[in-house]
Amino acid sequence: MLSDSSRRDPRGGGFLRRLRLWATIAVLFAIGYFGWVKFEWSRPTATLRQPLQFLGKHAEIPLDVADWGTGLASLDVSIDAGGTRYQVLSESYPAASWRGSGIHEKSFTLAVAPSDAKIPEGPAKLTVTARDGSWLNFLVSRPPTLVQPIQIDYTPPSVEVLTTQHYMRLGGSDMVIYKTSKDAVRSGVVVEQYFFPGTKGLLPDADIAAAIFAVPQDLTPAARPKVVAEDAAGNRREAGFFVSVKPRKFAERTLDVNDDFLKRKVPGLLEINHLAATDDLLAGYLAINRSLRTQSEETIRKVCSHSEPKMLWSEVFLRQPDSAPLSSFADRRTYKHDGTVIDSQTHLGFDLASLRQSPVVAENNGKVVFAENLGIYGNVVILDHGLGLFSLYGHLSSIGVAVGQSVQRGDSLGRTGETGLAAGDHLHFSIMVDGIHVDPIEWWDPKWVADHVTEKLKSFENPATTAAAGAPPASAPPPETGHRGRHRR
Predict the structure, then answer these.
(1) Using the 8-state DSSP alphabet, how is residue 376 labeled?
(2) Binning pLDDT at 50, 70 and 90, where does residue 324 land?
(3) What is the sign, positive or negative, of the torsion defined by CA atoms of 471, 203, 180, 477?
(4) What are phi and psi of 27, to 5 degrees?
(5) 10 Å Cβ neighbour count for 377?
(6) Is the pLDDT assigned to residue 140 strictly greater than 80?
(7) Is residue 39 part of a domain?
(8) How many separate helices (H) and strands (E) can be counted in the chain?
(9) How confident is the model at residue 467 (pLDDT cuts 50, 70, 90)?
(10) Do 159 and 112 contact (CB within 8 A), yes or no?
């Protein structure tokens, strides 16, 4: 007879051994995975989104931190200067699970006021210490995540206005010449909400800059331009200067918008400018005259935000040959439909008429920076003449130049037409200073250009005359010219 032990199934003992083996492997794997996670070797990272060399009285620290393992556990940001540590930020991020906080990245724009914290001027050090949930932090001393040398600077650059005479009309422009200290990295003229950057390198003294600026037509003669200069730490100094702004009353005109015009213009303009189609032609017209007009001006400002840092022109601007004015600059226009006022807008520029599809020429030397459809202006060419000065040629039936092409005064740009929101064949011409429309009539006047631009620059070409701190008195602006006739809509 067989014993009980001899009757046991040997397969049962093998199954138990395999089960114990797999259980042991699973436990070892869990311990290994837990240890791999909790003893994470990779460290958090910290980067500055923008280069940071200086901190002024009020500044920002653009910081990104990340940890793709256990997640961030804490973050400390400090500034060391003069033997003292100044805490900027200290945050902790509690664990959300056994793995860690689960916070893998954070972006900060830390507003700091070093002067309020009494941090002394001079060399300093920005220190960022980010920690994750790794247990190695308790066993190993780790260096800071980011150390950045910086300079604390509270002293704004100096600025001195050199030209003494600035006579302008509302909606007109002028040039101011000024000198800044070498630490200025940005300078120009502020006129309320508008900024017109200055340019260095035009004159023998490298610290002298010139800025063409405007008192735009939507301001008042009470506007007071100021020269401003900023250094790399954001410290800013302002200097007022003498400006006499002559009041001006702009022409007021009423235009009738009839149904034939709406049928002829609105559907095509909505389509080419990617606006929603509508059977309500009047509503479509208002969208064009308002929203599309605003978008067109925004595009102009963007196109004119970068200009050659030198004069590309050498003569007065050439008025279009054989053309007659249809309207003047900054007309205040009221639009009526069936006798009811439906809208009001300001017309920025000059409308010039000639024969149908007449040649359009460059009014001065420059470079083509735009050559395509532009909303209410239709087919447009924009030229950069340097120092922030641009000219615009609108409603063209055809464009004969390409972006990047250099043109000379009198070169052909295309032909007149009635593209965009034009009621008939003509040229819309504008001059802009850093994207702000100004009165072209000044730039067509040789005496005005000499007194307000070229002679001012010449007076500082000899370094010995710079100390005189003033150009010859500028002449009074030319008399205002009014024009009546057909108008662009």
Answers:
(1) G
(2) confident
(3) positive
(4) -65, -45
(5) 27
(6) no
(7) no
(8) 8, 32
(9) very low
(10) no
Confidence grade of residue 353 (pLDDT, cut at 50, 70, 90): confident
Ramachandran class of 58: left when φ > 0, alpha when ψ lies in -120 to 50, beta otherwise: beta
* pLDDT surpassing 90 at residue 486: no
Q: Which amino acid is present at 468?
A: A
296 backbone dihedrals φ, ψ, rounded to 5°: -60, -45
Q: Looking at the 3D structure of the chain, how many domains does it have? A: 3
DSSP, collapsed to helix, strand or coil, labels residue 379 as: strand
Give one DSSP letter per residue of 297-353, joined into a string. HHHHHHHTT---SS----SPPPPPTT-EEEE-TTEEEEEEETTEEEEEEEE-SEEEE
What range does the domain containing 460 cover? Answer: 155-248+445-480
| Pair 177, 283 in one domain | no
Element (H, E) at 413: strand 412-415
Instruction: Note the pLDDT of residue 391.
Output: 98
| Signed CA dihedral, 441, 442, 444, 446: sign only | positive
Cα distances from 52 to residues 62, 85, 151, in angstroms, run 9, 19, 9
User: What's the longest Cα–Cα distance across the chain?
Assistant: 135
Q: How far apart are CA 253 and CA 250, in angstroms?
A: 10
**Would you say 343 and 419 are in contact if contact means Cβ atoms under 8 Å apart?**
no
CATH of the domain at 346: 2.70.70.10
Q: What is the pLDDT of residue 488?
A: 35
